[in-house]
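Teaching note: in complex prediction, the entire set of molecules is handled at once rather than each chain in isolation. The prompt given to students was simply: 'Predict the structure of this complex.' The entities are:
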Amino acid sequence: MTSMPFYVSPEQLMKDRADYARKGIARGRSVVVLGYDKGIAFVAENPSRALHKVSEIYDRIAFAAVGKYNEFENLRVAGVRYSDLRGYSYDRTDVTARGLANFYAQILGTVFTQESKPYEVEIVVAEVGDDAEDDQVYRLTYDGSVADERGFVAMGGAAETVETGLKKGWTPGMSLADALALAVGLLGQDPAGGAARELTAAQLEVAVLDRERPRRTFRRIGGSLLDALLSKDDPTRDAPSTDDPTPGPHDTLTGGAPARDDSTNPETQRPDDPGTEGSDG
Amino acid sequence: MTTGPDAGRLPAAYLSAGSSSFTEFVGAHAPHLLPSRRVLPPGSTLEAPHGTTIVTAAFEGGVVMAGDRRATMGNIIANRDMEKVFAADEYSAVGIAGTAGIAIELVKLFQVELEHYEKIEGTLLSLEGKANRLASMIRANLAMAMQGLAVVPIFAGYDLDRDAGRIFSYDVTGGCYEEHDHHSVGSGSLFARGALKKLWRPGRSSDETVSVAVEALYDAADDDSATGGPDVGRRIWPTVAVVDNAGVRFVPDDELRGVVEAVLARRDGNPGGAR
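The expected output is the structure of the full assembly:
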């Protein structure tokens, strides 16, 4: 008859939990977050159009995650609630990626030590600044530790291979098309050393935080625009600064003819007025 | 953070599943931040600035909403350049009459509510859905309304499914009614409604409808002391929002100046504007 161990050392307990979480994360596809000349781009291998790995949190802040969907979806919703509450009770400019990263670190840290199972997730919180120097990218791991990253981050199964490639290939001030080509090429690599896959637009989830937009800077990139950006022959190097002309939600840019007015800025009222931007209406 | 059994953990409201409503989240987590949770001592009334007249009029494929700029406190003009028409989200606008402080807080909450839903669900709320959310916020304010701090908004937006502008009016109990063609709320609304009836025609363009709305506000200001007319000396023009399939657009001041001057010229020596 085997006896149950009565004592497990805290070191062993934490190590077991960390191994468990790491294994869960390593099973998933990778996500790359990298800066380009006009903002921050997010590239994920994700064939689903409805279950996102990259999402908008606030005006200038976005969220990217790998791991278990239900766990990071929970974190995303909590982050939107945290940011909207903070923006509502203080001011929109008081919602920062640093505050949000600390908020997530607390949740992840508490869950890691107190719950029966840690979250099997890794997340990035990114905030686009007025110029590339002011961009902030925070990477949070399953145990609540926070790392302040510069320029680029890779998470998920093949993170190490991708990160090595980014170190070699990434330069500050790349155009969006170059940044996407680099990220997509690296995501297609096989960490085990096999043949590289060619990822098509349909297998990718791509979004940007565009620093030149007023207020809400997050836009997904899809349809013919993504095809054009990924194609080596197409001259398109950048996302348009105007939304698609079709009426409806404007979270996705597909490259339709720019015909919309610069409208729509609740809480800033008149987007063209310099000086009133960011203040409450 | 809380103490006790969940010390160190997040309040449950942050991670609770299912709700896409910001108001419900705030109500569960920080109810003191909601305008409707405040309680006045019984039997008291207080004097606070009041916003006055808002008019809306539909046109082919959209709707125009205009508000005067005056807030009054008894016989005093509390503010002469207050904005009372706001973009609620990309395809709707809300105008407010009643106690200005509470009304503006309510509009702010409503704007966050709509954006919050959009971010969590990844899609826009239907126009009826937005109108009903606003109704429940007004309903929650009933206790304050009974003590004199009433808020009566008017909501107008572009319906993406019907490709048309729609107008919704409210009463203090949160009743939400769809209005046809045009409507007005606030102290000068009686006069504005009369003017709208005579001036509004179906099938007009957005520019003509803006002119009609400005003229209706002029008539309201003519007979209601709490409604501010266009102030040529200070260059204060009404706030005018146009909502159509391109979104919400506020008519810029220089354009409004032309509209106001045309109205004034038409009424020179003909104060009733009869035609």
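Point out the following to students. The two ends of chain B are 67 Å apart (CA to CA). Chain B has one domain: 47-266.
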